[in-house]
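Please decode residue identities from the backbone states below.
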């Protein structure tokens, strides 16, 4: 699994964040799922296609045991999938993930039946162990879409397939649960109680305002949220803020604190870079002017290079550009053409 994929998932893997996402998006903010009722599950499945064995893995998946870890009753399996772009085949992917989740329950039952036969354990004793849930539970996948330029319209099997009307009665439709984070209402954003509130707030602000005013909410999982935001947004400010936390540990921080400092340092670096670039530009334009004045005296490129103690190749480029524009001369235009040619040159 790539570093980018891991960075997207690590924040959501915390039980407080996972439970918060489920409670807000599925239960409208009601705290039905408690963080201590969630258990991590490694959810990898395999399938055969083109005579090859393939593996698929969910982003984040957890089992919800309503009465806690000591209880055998499983209420549901929740999976979260992150998407920054619209995937036309996502319905198929989610259907595969959910199908694998149900298939695993069937395989588990078959394994338990084999165990009973091998050990001679009475059937009713095994039934007592799984009484209530009997290892049958729904599989629910939440697709979190972080794009804010396009809406996700096609969410069902019927919508992505051209199914003849006469076949529709025999084809079960399948709907995936897509939650467009950037289109959440302000009220929904305020329902979040974990660090995911900061994530949702960012995307809603960017969709509505095209800019982000950092939140003053205290961050609990600092490194994890900055990593996730850096991957999802491709904004360097989050990477720079992430570097700071290695130097400033042990103190509660908000996104406003981190990004404000990162932006100040970025501006300072930009000013230094600007001064350096400005100095280089000034020196280059001075050289161009000197070449032009010597050309007016009918000096050739080699003679000018010798007088100015510059590389003949550099002077020749300047000489040729000026000569093309004569009798007009504009130092800024010559500099722009010189810079453009430098960019096109192979490294």
């Amino acid at each position: 699994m790539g570093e980018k994929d891991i960075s997207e998932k690590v924040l959501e893997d915390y039980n407080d964040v996972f439970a918060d996402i489920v409670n807000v998006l599925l239960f409208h903010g009601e705290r039905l799922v408690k963080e201590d009722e969630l258990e991590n599950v490694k959810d990898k499945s395999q399938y055969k296609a083109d005579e090859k064995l393939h593996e698929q893995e969910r982003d984040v998946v957890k089992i919800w045991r309503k009465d806690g870890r000591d209880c055998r009753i499983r209420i549901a399996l929740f999976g979260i999938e992150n998407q920054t772009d619209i995937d036309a085949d996502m319905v198929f992917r989610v259907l595969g993930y959910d199908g694998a989740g149900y298939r695993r329950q069937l395989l588990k039952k078959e394994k338990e039946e084999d165990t009973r036969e091998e050990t001679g354990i009475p059937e009713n004793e095994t039934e007592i162990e799984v009484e209530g849930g009997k290892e049958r539970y729904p599989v629910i996948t939440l697709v979190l879409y972080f794009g804010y330029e396009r809406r996700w319209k096609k969410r069902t099997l019927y919508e992505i397939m051209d199914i003849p009307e006469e076949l529709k009665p025999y084809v079960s439709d399948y709907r995936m649960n897509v939650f467009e984070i950037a289109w959440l209402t302000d009220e929904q954003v305020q329902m979040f109680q974990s660090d995911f509130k900061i994530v949702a707030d960012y995307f809603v602000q960017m969709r509505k305002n095209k800019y982000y005013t950092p939140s003053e909410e205290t961050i609990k999982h600092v490194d994890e949220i900055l990593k996730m935001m850096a991957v999802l947004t491709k904004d360097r400010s989050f990477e720079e803020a992430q570097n700071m936390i290695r130097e400033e540990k042990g103190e509660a921080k908000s996104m406003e604190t981190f990004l404000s400092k990162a932006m100040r340092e970025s501006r300072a670096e930009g000013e230094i870079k600007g001064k350096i670039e400005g100095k280089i530009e000034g020196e280059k334009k001075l050289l161009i002017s000197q070449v032009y004045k010597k050309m007016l005296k009918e000096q050739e490129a080699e003679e000018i290079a010798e007088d100015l103690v510059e590389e003949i190749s550099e002077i020749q480029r300047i000489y040729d550009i000026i000569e093309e524009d004569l009798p007009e001369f504009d130092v800024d235009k010559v500099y722009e053409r010189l810079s453009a040619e430098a960019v096109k040159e192979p490294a």
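Observation: The radius of gyration is 31 Å.
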